[in-house]
Design goal:
Blueprint: H1 2-15, H2 36-48, E1 53-59, H3 61-64, E2 72-73, E3 78-83, H4 89-99, E4 107-111, H5 133-153, E5 157-161, H6 174-195, E6 198-200, H7 202-206, H8 227-238, E7 244-245
Helix pairs in contact: 4-5, 5-6
């Protein structure tokens, strides 16, 4: 029995992991890098030739994938798309001066925030912890308030679009994402009421009867709008944005 106990202790000691050095990731992937060169080239043309800009659409993949010229025509200049797939509020804040303010648009249509919710899901490959709902929400709200403040201070009309409902059943924290979106939209709507920015409520036009998920048939996979989703967005935006809807 003594030998068995000793063997068990030896086996347990053998299975105890030893401390080892883990340097972690050497860099952070920023989706905003993916279109930086393209936008730099395009921005230089606008700045160099003093091209009048009616409206800049500033956002993530939902803006990136939107064929804006099929829906809108500017009255006082060109329509500029500065959406980057995968972008979050952290990097959008860093590129704001380049992709919006220096272009001197009359108006900015901003749709950002949903990608911040991805950080509430653990990175199992790198063993990185997830942000809590409160942490992700606070970060997004603070970044978006700063972005909005800077746009308004520059004298640009600001249209703040609600984050749209999702229905991605394949993700880990979809229910938590719904909570995040509802809370973020409530905060942004209140911000608009306090500052004079215009609130554009895509959410109410696209949410199903459960009040949390996107209606069937409006997206490709539960987050990115298809043509029918973009049709609804264009209709809601045209109610408040003084550009020509085609």
């Amino acid at each position: 029995t003594q030998n068995q106990n000793q063997n068990q202790r030896n086996e347990a000691a053998h299975m105890e992991p030893k401390a080892f050095i883990r340097p972690g990731r050497f860099s952070e992937e920023a989706w905003a890098d993916n279109r930086r060169i393209e936008f730099d080239f395009k921005n230089q043309v606008i700045v160099q030739h003093d091209i009048p800009v009616d409206t800049v659409f500033f956002g993530d993949s939902i803006t990136h994938f939107w064929e804006l010229n099929a829906y809108f025509e500017g009255k006082e200049g060109i329509i500029v798309n500065r959406g980057i797939g995968g972008d979050n509020t952290v990097y959008a804040k860093r590129r704001l001066e380049a992709d919006v303010i220096q272009l001197k648009p009359r108006r900015c249509v901003m749709l950002l925030g949903v990608n911040d919710a991805w950080d509430m899901e653990e990175d199992n490959w790198w063993q990185l912890p997830a942000l809590s709902l409160e942490e992700a929400l606070t970060r997004a709200e603070e970044n978006l308030h700063e972005i909005c403040d800077r746009i308004l201070t520059a004298g640009i009309e600001l249209y703040v679009c609600s984050v749209m409902p999702t229905n991605m059943k394949f993700t880990i924290k979809e229910e938590l994402r719904h909570d995040f979106i509802l809370a973020l939209n409530e905060d942004l709507e209140a911000y608009c009421g306090q500052t004079g920015a215009v609130w554009v409520d895509y959410y109410s036009a696209m949410v199903s009867q459960d009040g949390r998920t996107v209606k069937d048939g409006l997206t490709f996979e539960g987050i990115h709008p298809n043509v029918f989703g973009y049709d609804i967005m264009a209709g809601e935006l045209a109610k408040v944005l003084p550009v020509v809807k085609k």
